[in-house]
Design a protein that fits this description.
By secondary structure, the chain is an all-alpha fold. 80% of the residues lie in helices and 0% in strands. The longest helix is centred in the C-terminal third of the chain and has 41 residues.
Length: 71
């Protein structure tokens, strides 16, 4: 079964939770290593989602600008 893709908001909540655990020294060394790997992956996915949203917004604005010029 396919895994549901995590939303940006869900990824940020998880990242905030991991950071809070790290700051509170709640993790063992082994857990810390795994948490850091997960945090890096979450940051990478969030950056990709932000970049994708930015590109979509730029495309829409350019289309709107081109439509306005054609009037």
């Amino acid at each position: 079964m396919a895994k549901k893709q995590q939303s940006y908001e869900e990824a940020m909540v998880r990242l905030e939770h991991l950071v809070a655990q790290m700051e509170a020294n709640e993790l063992t060394i082994d857990q810390l290593g795994e948490a850091l790997k997960e945090a890096q992956d979450l940051v990478k996915r969030c950056k990709a989602k932000l970049y994708q949203a930015d590109e979509q917004i730029k495309k829409l604005l350019k289309e709107e600008e081109n439509e306005a010029k054609s009037w």
